[in-house]
Amino acid sequence: MNRVEAVRLDPALRPVLWVAILASFVAFLDGAIINVALPAMTDDLGGGLALQQWVVDSYLLTLGALILIAGSLSDGFGRIRILRLGLVLFGLASLACALAPTGVVLIAARAVQGVGGALLVPSSLALIMSAYRGAARGHAIGLWTGWTGTSAIAGPLLGGLLVDVLNWRWIFAINVLPIAVTLLILGRLKEPSSVPSRPPLDVVGAALAAVGLAGIVFSLIEQQRLGWSHPGVAGSLALGVASFVVFLWWENRTAHPMMPLRLFRIRNFGIGNIATAFIYAALSLGMLMVVLFLQQVAGFSATQAGLATLPVALLMLLLSGTFGGLAARFGPRVFMAVGPLMIGIGYLLMTAARMPVNFWTQLLPGLLVCGVGLAITVAPLTAGILSAVGPVESGIGSAINNAVSRIAGLIAVALAGVILGGVLDDAGFRRVLVVVAVVAIAGGLVSALGIRNLPLEAR
What we know:
By secondary structure, this protein is mainly α. Helices cover 78% and strands 0% of the residues. The chain contains 19 helices and no strands. α7 (151-165) runs antiparallel to α13. The longest helix is centred in the C-terminal third of the chain and has 31 residues, at 359-389. The chain is globular, with a radius of gyration of 21 Å. The relative contact order is 0.12. The model is unreliable at 1-6 (pLDDT under 50).
């Protein structure tokens, strides 16, 4: 009887794997930990909902605008060099966040964190891809995915504990320890003697993307304070939309675009990214509102709010592999259609929330349905999009899909004040959840109507 031997990773390459895991874990943990600390930040610094939106969106803004060009930087200037720069930027920005005396300083430091985060994730994966081959590469990526995925579980709970036991500033200060360890291990690695020729960087595209996103996000958040007729709000919205239009024009004509628009002409890639935008917009806004509602309206502590989100993360981690395997066998279409539908139903179930809130009967059922829907969706969505472009362009395809999901979350969070009318109460919470459910269901409908199952050999 033949036995399949387990894949053994070269012990000499363990530092490479640990650097990749730790660097990405820091970036993912920061995204998962922030929501539960937002109420404490505004209690300390003021600023209300607008500050909470900016603290989330300033990070997503620079991350979403730069994550595509960061991959080119990693290829051209060396993975280790770019990783080191990303870690130093992220660490210094984390300290600035922890010491921020005002909301403006905190927002600015979060934007610098986003720049660091944009440099970390692509470089981490590129480091694994260049160091490992064959089955060992797949095993290493699996370990990277598993360890970084734990941030979805550890983040909200750790953040809640730090806020309740110490204060919100510690959610940023704690980043210094893993960053220091990662830099120490990184010092043992050597850059390859021959770095490939540097591809031209799409600096114009990156600048247009950043200005476009910043203009739109500024107008959506600040309109609740200044009003739509304010010249700053109307002007920034016009500038943002115009910059985005010029960005699309530029990406279509430049020889080295950071976002090759030709890929969107591939059916499953283009439709899949439209579905991604709907799905991740719903998830980003929905989970943010759940955490804020639990603390600011229902009276939960930060730790309790963090614990409340655990079922979603656990179900996703436990079931994603199963649904990813089923999608590989039967094709992604039905899973990309049914999963978002369940996410939408889960959010609609949570509209049962009334004061005084009973978490077990009013919110937990919806969270469980959302968790199952998310598990059904994520792996088939990613696999369906990347299989559409093939292995040669899977790197840029993955980067574009990552950027689309981040930008969708960025815009959705910016819209929170528009939907709420500037005040989060139980009626506003239910109104947001209805919008979120409609957006999630739209993602499922787009998938049902547009996605095509490829032949088995092409998946």
